[in-house]
């Protein structure tokens, strides 16, 4: 990788890893509770809200962000999101037709996922929260028991019934890895860094089609690359050379590639002269 490309990626990472990045990104839900007046919220609430947001973050932002907001608003009408899950209030509140006795839970809530699919996700979150105080405590214990497995796989296997949580060792598991970026990376105006027990150097980049295509255009990945676990690991290893010990910082840079390209070319050129 040439020096000019490395400087470009460093510039873009610094440009986009700012608090305003959250305004139109699903990472806005990491601090959802802090924006609510007179609300007492806990680490458990932050983690659960973030996990649900990550699991719904696919497709059009204009479509999935309101769906995430709706779930969190329903929960906050009763208590907080973690208590709403633990008390199984979703079985009364999260329904297709409020105030109707008969409910068709096979009706789709978002894209191809039905209300029943979300019940499976919420049920498994409920089981975890009844066993451990927080998601972090639960996954930390599982990780300590089996460090031969990547934390991404441990999380995936903790939701055997849920269709919403991605499965498969060949999958890029973009949404789980995005959630892990949020939880693990510290010293960031975007990511929270709550899980200090997992090294950020071992994070895998959240790989989606956009990130992969931009990486191919830049010559970082070969043209025949597929959005798979193997590709995500290869990309993460290459980004670790540019951002030592923090490969997922590159997520902001790869997001920025192609966004307002003409507008920032002059800024990049100036930065590369340093």
Could you provide a short overview of the structure?
It contains 13 helices and two strands. It is mostly helical and 274 residues long.
Write up this protein.
The protein has 274 residues and is mainly alpha-helical. The chain is built from 13 helices and two strands. The chain has one domain. It has a two-stranded antiparallel sheet with strand order 1-2. A hairpin with a 2-residue loop joins strand 1 and strand 2.
User: What structural category do the secondary elements indicate?
Assistant: mainly alpha
Number of helices: 13
Integer tally of domains: 1
Helix content: 40-55%
The span between the termini is: 18 Å
Strand order of the largest sheet: 1-2
Q: Nearest-angstrom radius of gyration?
A: 19 Å
Order of helices and strands: HHHHHEEHHHHHHHH
- Quaternary structure state of the chains depicted: single chain
Q: Indicate the low-confidence ranges by residue numbers.
A: none
Shape from CA axes? Answer: globular
Instruction: Give a quick account of the main beta sheet: strands, pairing sense, barrel closure.
Output: 2 strands, antiparallel
Indicate the mean pLDDT. 90
Q: Number of DSSP strands?
A: 2
Which percent range describes the beta-strand content? under 5%
């Amino acid at each position: 990788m040439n020096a000019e490309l490395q400087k470009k990626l460093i510039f873009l990472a610094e440009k986009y890893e700012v608090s305003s990045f959250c305004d139109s990104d699903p990472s806005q839900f990491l601090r959802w509770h802090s924006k609510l007046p007179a609300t007492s919220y806990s680490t458990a609430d932050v983690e659960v809200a973030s996990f649900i947001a990550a699991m719904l973050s696919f497709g059009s932002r204009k479509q999935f962000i309101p769906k995430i907001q709706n779930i969190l608003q329903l929960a906050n009408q009763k208590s907080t999101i973690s208590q709403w899950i633990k008390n199984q209030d979703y079985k009364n509140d999260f329904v297709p037709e409020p105030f109707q006795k008969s409910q068709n839970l096979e009706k789709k809530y978002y894209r191809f996922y039905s209300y029943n699919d979300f019940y499976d996700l919420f049920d498994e979150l409920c089981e975890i929260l009844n066993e451990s105080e927080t998601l972090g405590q639960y996954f930390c214990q599982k990780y300590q028991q089996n460090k031969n497995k990547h934390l991404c796989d441990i999380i995936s296997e903790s939701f055997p019934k849920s269709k919403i949580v991605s499965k498969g060792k060949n999958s890029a598991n973009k949404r789980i890895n995005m959630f892990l970026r949020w939880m693990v990376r510290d010293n960031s105006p975007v990511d929270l860094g709550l899980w200090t027990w997992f090294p950020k150097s071992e994070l895998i980049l959240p790989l989606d089609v956009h990130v992969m295509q931009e990486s191919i255009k830049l010559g970082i990945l070969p043209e025949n690359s597929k959005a798979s676990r193997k590709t995500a690991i290869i990309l993460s290893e290459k980004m670790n050379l540019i951002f030592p010990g923090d490969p997922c910082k590159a997520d902001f840079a790869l997001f920025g590639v192609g966004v307002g390209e003409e507008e920032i070319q002059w800024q990049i050129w100036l930065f590369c002269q340093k």
